[in-house]
Predict the 3D structure of the following.
Amino acid sequence: MSKISAILISSALAISLSGCMSSASPEVRAFEGIKATCEANKGGKEIDAVKVTAEKDKVPTVEFATSQPGSGVKAPLAGIKSAQTKIISEGNGPAFTGDELITIDFAVFSSTTGAQLAANRFDGTDSASQVFNSKESKVYCDALSGVKQGSLVAFALPVSATDPEGSLFVLKLRKVYLPHANGSSNAPEAGFPQVVLTPKTGQPALVQPSFNKPAEFKRSTLITGKGEVIKKGDSVTLHYTGWVWSENIDEPFDTSWEPRDPQTPMSPATLTIAEGSVIKGFVKALEGITVGSQVIAVIPPAEGYGDQAQGSIPPNSTLIFVVDVLGINK
């Protein structure tokens, strides 16, 4: 191949890839660079033999070879040794890659008898939200890793001590949220406490500032995401941590990065960005910010809780929030 031909091919490929990137929706672009934390889903002949019939806003039905418990004949799907996944119809949204909140419609069937065990309405009115992570829910995380938002997917899990018949799941992935802020990092601005991030999760912490707190509201974008822009009134899913500015900034007064109690898994918060739903300073902190961004905001008492105590927050407190914007709910 001549040098000129190689240059032309290389240029054409670069233009083609650039075109693909620019044509992606902001929702998809917000996920660019996110690394998978769970293993990519795997198929198999047993799940391929499952026929799923789906109609709009109706619970899907399934057909596959079954058996009766205790009959001595094992249904093929109940004999699998590891999880198997099959995409029934593929969406065009961002892909789930692990340690992310997703919103789903679901139906669950016995892999042995084919009986439906559970389901929601499958019309988006009673969808469930769940974080599937690479630890406690790894088997589900692996089964769904790589599945795109908008997809209808079936996956089967093997028989176990707690599931003696095995289970077949049919899910509609209605929404996939970022696991943390994702985008371009910006140089720190003067007048804000330094933010440090936990390497694996992205959870923020603060370094005690050596200067006095400001008297006015201040906002700085630490990471600029590529997603959609937040408008007043939007329902937004996010991670946040809040501190009271003091001479010894220590533990936050609230955070979504930690479980509320040992029985409740960690999950992002969903808030409406409007006064009356959140404090005025929180609205100012997020209005006009893009999905994927991380913001630090310093909120004076007049735009926070004023002269009223709020739980562990003393009256006339200046607040500091660090917020990761994970998605807009539509």
Summary: The radius of gyration is 24 Å. Confidence is low (pLDDT under 50) at residues 3-18. The domain at 45-176 is CATH 3.10.50.40 (Chitinase A; domain 3).
